[in-house]
Amino acid sequence: MKAITLGSFSKFVGLDFFTSLKNLFTGKLAKEDFKKFLRKVIVPLASILIFVGLWHLGAKSLYNIEATFRIEKALKDQGPVAAAALKTCIASGQASCQPNTLPSPTQVWDSFQSLLRDHRIINADKAAFIEKTATLNTKRIAAGKNAITYTGRPSFVDQIFRSLQTVFAGFLLALFIAVPLGIFIGLSPTLKSAFNWFIQIFKPVSPVVWYLLVFMIVKTLLIDSNEDSSFTISFISVGLCAMWATLVNTAMGVSSVDKDYINVAKVLKLGTFQKIFKVVLPSSLPLIFTGLKITLSVAWMVLIAIELLAQSPGLGLFVWEEFQNGANDSNAKIIVAMFVIGIIGFLLDRFMLTIQNWVSFDKTDAI
Amino acid sequence: MNTKTILQETENGLFPPSKVMLDIRDLKKVYPTSKGDYIVLENLNLKIMKEEFVTIIGHSGCGKTTMLSMIAGLNPISGGNIAVLGKHIKGPGPDRGVIFQSPSLMPWMTSLQNVLLGVKKVFPHATKSQRKDIAKYYLQKVGLEDSFYKKASELSQGMQQRVGIARAFAIKPKVLLLDEPFGMLDSLTRGELQDILIEIWNKEKITAVMITHDVDEAIFLADRVIMMTSGPKAKIGDILDIGFERPRTRKSVLEHNDYYTYRKHLIDFLEH
In what order do the strands lie in the sheet with B224-228? Predict the structure, then answer.
């Protein structure tokens, strides 16, 4: 067994710039490594700075365009006094008259901070609530009644975890449908032609339509229930929408096992069960995992749209509510959500890649 | 004159049925194409005796591999039949072990697991540890006693083919079919593996049919070298008996007076 070092681990998960960074701080950075360090650490940092700078300038110019337009409009419609008042109002930075446009990086950073503050306040509220109801709840449970739960507004961090829950529920659904089905389709040409039209037609259907379809069915199935079905509907939609990559990849992996392996299985007269579990499945694992990786990233991508439609709590609903809200810092919060969505998507992808590297027998074919 | 060429058809008297392991009669292989049927093999007759080592030599694309995969049962027969110990073959089976051109090991398994894969099927009543002992025995025989638990993907090409040899012998086949097993190896490794193969074979005496491109390999290993004509409609062109005593060593074979006569015979055939 090789010892797991930070270096080998970070390389394994595809984040080997950590190694360069560590070498810099521990003074182990050799001269020949310096070029690599430049490429792995300095260049990405520089490009991030350039990106933020361009964003800042762009936001500023958009801000100016909107401010000038408003002042000129006020001048035309209401006269010079109103225009001058608006001008001082905008310059003072008062919330009521700020142009509503692309927020600047600093505004987004401030909103991020305020969302975290908000989260801490809500957490404190929740803790206080639980403490307050603790004795009452034990009595209620003893009496056979339901405990009182906190029903206050979820914080931004809660929404993130809600979204992750939905996406993992959807991902597991996709896994449990697509992998077995893909294996059957891959093994049997008959099943393949039976399912092919189905896959071809349903694969390109948009998440919105999947949501509506699932809504129609689940609404009727849960017609007696008073429970909120939005979570059920959204995770099923996410799963159905995202499972196609896994289905197609699994079927392809299973049906395209190296002919040599199949010949070996034939010569050794392996039984069907042994053939599937000892030969076919292990050899198609890399492709299955590529499919699962795509499924997870598609699931995360469509989740936002589906949560928004399903009114299921999560980042999608957060974005939609902020947009509808139209408060002064709403736009900045939407951008915060955008970055959070992007970063989580990236981390999920790395997570899958790590598992893929781990299970894959051929260490070279992982991308 | 030690070289004696025998055409199969005239020699039926020399092959008493009780000693025949593999009997190929009027074998035919046809691949239908859009321009009509393409006949790869036709009227191919061959008897291989028990405990005989036969090498087949011929130009690329003459149908050697087709014939071998038909014997293995991996390729359907278009006409004629193939019998092992008088029983017509139906599909592949563990009575015919195959060593493929590429090692064809499952890269996700260790060398031991790869060998065990077939052993389990052939010795269903053996305990797990007995099966392991069989697999380990053959891995030792091919010189892999230090690599039982190495993943096949971590082994070199030559070592992988050693596992392939161990896997084929471990299922105790009646006939061993070898499809240019050393074709992908460098000449040093090839020599090593030939020695290993012949060493195990001397012990187990399993009837072996081996395809090769290498004239020296064909002479060193075989009791008879079978020369196939070029396709289409390939058949057996000539058969050369190799009279060297067994067990052989490379040195004694190379120094033998007949060696160059045999070699010239084969090369003359291939060049015409």
Answer: B96-99, B175-179, B207-212, B53-57, B224-228, B236-241
pLDDT digits (tens, 9 = 90+) for A4-60: 555 566 666 656 666 666 666 666 656 667 777 788 888 989 999 999 999 999 999
User: Which of B82, B92, B38 is closest to B61 using CA atoms?
Assistant: B38
Domains recognised in chain B with CATH numbers? 51-75+89-95+173-271 (3.40.50.300)
Task: Please indicate whether, in this complex, the C-beta atoms of B104 and A279 are within 8 angstroms of each other.
Answer: no
Name the burial class of residue A136, with classes exposed (0-12), middle (13-18) and buried (19+) by CB atoms within 10 angstroms of its CB.
exposed
Reported pTM: 0.77
Whole-angstrom Cα distance, residue A157 to residue A118? 9
SS3 content of chain A, % helix, strand, coil (to 5): 80, 0, 20
Closest Cα in chain A to B119: A268
Give the separation between CA B201 and CA A206, rounded to whole angstroms. 63
Q: Which residue pairs from B130-133 have beta carbons closer than 8 angstroms and sit at least 24 positions apart in sequence?
A: none
CA distance A281 to chain B (A): 11
Ranges of each domain in chain A = 6-98, 103-153, 160-359
CB B134 within 8 A of CB B208: no
The CATH H-level superfamily of A160-359 is: MetI-like (1.10.3720.10)
Would you state the structure tokens that stand for residue A52, as one six-digit string? Answer: 């933020």
pLDDT, position B9 = 44
Residue A358 structure tokens: 């781990």
Which residue in the set A266, A267, A362 is minimally distant from B107, CB to CB?
Answer: A362
Structure tokens belonging to residue A223: 């017609």
Chain-chain contact of A266 with B108 (C-beta, under 8 angstroms) = no
Instruction: Return d(Cα A11, Cα B181) in angstroms, integer.
Output: 38
Question: How confident is the model over A215-224, as pLDDT tens digits?
Answer: 999 888 888 8
What percent of chain B is helix, strand and coil (3-state, nearest 5)? 40, 25, 35
| Integer Cα distance of B21 and B84 in angstroms | 6
User: Which ipTM was obtained for this model?
Assistant: 0.81
Share above pLDDT 70 across residues of chain B, in percent, rounded to a whole number: 94
For helices A230-242 and A281-310, what crossing angle results, to 10°? 140
